[in-house]
Amino acid sequence: MYAMRKELNQYRQAGPIAEIAVADPHRLTQMLFEGALERIAVARGAMAQNNVALKGQKINQAMDIIGALRGALDLQRGGEIAANLDALYDYMIRRLVTGNARNDANILEEVAGLLREIKAGWDGIPEQLRRAS
Q1: CA atoms within a 13 Å half-sphere pointing along the CA-CB vector of 22
Q2: Crossing angle, helix 25-48 and helix 52-71, to 10 degrees?
Q3: Domain parsing of the chain, residue ranges
Q4: pTM of the entire predicted model
Q5: Which of 4, 34, 82, 128 is paired with 66 by a 20 to 30 Å CA distance?
């Protein structure tokens, strides 16, 4: 049974790795949003189960992903939109720190909602514009 579980986990990990290898920048950004949302969801579950170690690990991973999204912003060319996203990503990271410290699932959900909203806008970019950039 353990061997089968190990193989299943390897398969699960191989899927995203293979997708990363062929993904365009737009898809990579979508995958970052998805990864952050997934980690926040797992952190909320860990919080409900009083699994402090897993909660902290997943919140830290979500903060790393949001930090990567923030680091990818082109503040010189992105103008007001990039500046607003930079401030919003900073806010999200600070809120995740607070949510972790206070063990507050509502704060994690607040951040997840913000991420979903940005992701929805990103997902709505027409294919023509994706290829143009």
Answers
A1: 5
A2: 160
A3: 25-127
A4: 0.82
A5: 128
